[in-house]
Predict the structure.
Amino acid sequence: MAPSSAPPAATHRWLTPRNLLWTSVCVAVVTIALKTLAWYVTGSVGLLSDAMESFVNLASAVFALAMVTVAQLPADDNHPYGHHKAEYFSSGFEGLLIVGVSFGILWAAAHRLFDPLPLEQVGWGLGLSVVSSALNGLLAWVMFRSAREHRSIALEADARHLVTDVWTSAGVLVGLVGATLTGWLWLDAVAAIMVALNILKEGVELVWRSSQGLMDEAVEPEVQATIDATLQRFVQGEAEGTVRFDHVSTRRAGQRQYVDMHLHMPAHWTLRHAAELRGQVERALMEAVPGLRATIELLPTDVEAHFDDPKDV
């Protein structure tokens, strides 16, 4: 997820991760009611699968809200680097829930595939499902925009799940309409199975992304390119061979991004001169990449701290 050029203050004040997740909780309750009613009046196993996923939406939004609250806690003695990684637990938990509900849908649809039942009051079911999908789609659009600006993986995960829910509803509606028009009742079960496979894929991807975040995955390639370009400006701005950077390593932790490096400079420079240059590099990096925290170790040009590591000149 690439950082946005617009600061979070550019959005409406209420478009924060916590407020949007509270909204997601409320919308999930409404969509559960609508989709459960749609399943009740039609008897469609496809609509039942849609309603089951909405329960996952509710559980995911509640857990994401809790983890975002934890992630915003200030650093303390036990967590000197902050609590930003808590958001990865949220997206991982949501992924596991999605995987679980997909297997539940497959189980229900497999039974109905070989023993289809007649559908009733299809018009009401379609109408209720469309209304709930519209709510989810609108909320997902707003959440995606806020997730990019706040670099919140928990918010992004919830938005992706809502989009999956919209596609789920669309697939269910296609199967429901097809079964009604053709009389092939098994189309309803087929639509439910396709929905289950789709959300299973989404769940596995969320779990994978969360695991990579917890394992200190490097920043995105475009962010790394921005960091490299910023450092190169300082190399070119000094006399040839005066300063160089090596052992540049990055990692992500929720909304925060970190970069560590060695800054080599002539041994005869004063400490004031060296500190001033380091401060300029830190400010340039933080301006180029919002949310970035830089740790720079100063070394003389002819000294290597780690002889076995490859150097990035």
